[in-house]
Design goal:
The strands form two sheets. A three-stranded mixed beta sheet has the order 1-2-3. Strands 4-5-6 form a three-stranded mixed beta sheet. The protein folds into two domains: 1-64, no CATH class; 82-216, CBS-domain. It is of the alpha/beta class. The chain has nine helices and six strands.
Amino acid sequence: MGVLGKGDFFGDAALIGNRPHHTTIRARTPVRLRQLGSALFSDVASTFLPLRELLAEAALRRSKDFWAHVPLERSVLENEPVASLLEPLPAKLLHKDATLPEAIRALSESAGGELLIVDEQRHLWGTFDRHDVHLILAQIAEIPLEERRHVPGRKLSEFIPGNPLCVFLDDSALTVAMTLMDHKRPWLPVVQRKDDLQPVGYVRGERLVNRIIEKLVNRPTDQSSAAKAG
């Protein structure tokens, strides 16, 4: 029930185990896929170490049915709408053509450290947080010294990839939780729906966990329910 994003993959377990693929995947938005046959997959996976490590990590993560061990938490999240967990839109939305210094300044002035990047139609284009700053610094370090003087004038979109991972307003909190866990993300942007990518806010993993605790603490026990019934 989690959401896949740009660069994610599926069907690897079937290829590794040489068995039919039974997982159902449904496209939420227009998507471009690359298909890898079993022979080429085996050849690449056996010779390319980073891919082997990525596959091993994904297989281990997907083999653990975490939610089977926490059925109460799962039921809470299945019935919790994303709207109830929504953090409001940041006071400032970044445009993808903003310069790098403008983006850094906006991030330093933000309360939570999460910013959304929009395009000309104010559709969600990307996200920007403190983790991205470290990635950008790594990119700048690769630029020759004589060219770094041009960095302040470069656009944010030159450093940040578009097409971010996001969820829809009518998704369940369980979808959000699974997506956060699968991608090891602390937060996710929320848009209206698949045909309207206007951002409406974002969901933080911390708030999601707090909601689970709140619901479980206030959950009536069997004894109290029996007393009410009597």
